[in-house]
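hey can u check if this looks right to u? its 430 residues, i copy pasted from the old doc so theres a chance i mangled smth
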Amino acid sequence: MNIAVVGTGYVGLVTGTCFAEMGSCVTCIDVDAAKISQLQAGGIPIYEPGLQEMVRRNSAEGRLRFSTSLAEVIHEVEIVFCAVGTPQREDGSANLDYVLSVACEFGSLITKPTLFATKSTVPVGTCHLIRQTIEAELKKRGVKVDFDLASNPEFLKEGDAIKDFMSPDRVVVGVDSERARELMAKLYRPFLLNNFRVIFMDVASAEMTKHAANAMLATRISFMNDMANLCERVGADINAVRRGIGTDLRIGGKFLYAGCGYGGSCFPKDVRALSQVGRALGHPLRVLEAVDAVNEDQKHVLAAKVQKHLGQLEGKHIAVLGLAFKPNTDDIREAPSLTLIDDLLAAGASVKAFDPVVKKTTRAIAYADDLYDAVKDADAMVLVTEWKAFRMPDWKRIRNLMQTPVIIDGRNIYDASELREAGFIYEGIG
């Protein structure tokens, strides 16, 4: 099949590359000429394990191309995927300007029946706005061209996106016509051959599924963080509680880990966007509003724990391990590390951070060459991102390097008894 993917951000680039890997002819399109030039040269603008190699291989084999012009390929493609961003507005709602801009261009260009499929994360009801936009453009041109709509939300985890795409636990496809269903079934036939579940539904339900899935996962995280904070007050151990409830088959063990809050480009934005839809329709989603509030509070817990052990932070030196919001990505959007750094700087502390991939942020801090450089002369070490490289450090070396042996474990990855026996003051979450 010939398809186009508009938007070469995280979702668009992974989507286009993986469809090419499955045998489709794909053109990835972006208005950013510098980004397209980088991709044409074999580079990629994001960090995602295995993606660069896959981009280069499919480009060399002629299945993957990059362009700044949808007009160049619109007449040869059967499906145009919209994978542009939907950034958060000040009121928490999703900004659909980029999505509707793609729909407008689509309507101004099509000359034959073509499917417009949305990969971008959009609130329920966006399909109607897309249809109106395309029809308005066709009316301006004074032509009648059939088109169909589909919603094909992504469920990619940053750091594991290729596996998620190539071996999905399910593929959700919302369609508005039998022709759209047939095209999407044809595109996903390689997945059907491998017995992956492709779930067809109406477009509105597909749009809702994406937001509801992320909202549920975020809810589990905030619930466990709330429980962890209560455990600290009553003398319980959140890790024991997690094992106790996670073995209940009705609950399961995934996304039950307490920590310092979730971040990234999906959970915060999607929870707020869905909450805004509820408010706009007169049905406030009280659980989700609490989920967001708990998460924002949780991001401040690490700095509070540092202050608990060091007292006044003026003049103190703090080592921060991990800047990305999760391992195996360079994404720092809404990362708990940034909230921690802001809290520490506001309290008068100095910060030296190390992350295996993220080397700079907009914060006025020092950046270490490695873990041991970060902890040298530190009054406290705070683990924020659970990179594998941080799991089994040389504790004797760290103890000798640190000014004060305080370890704050924001992801509960260390053995408390081991560190206390080694002479550290240790505190985790819950």
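The radius of gyration is 24 Å.
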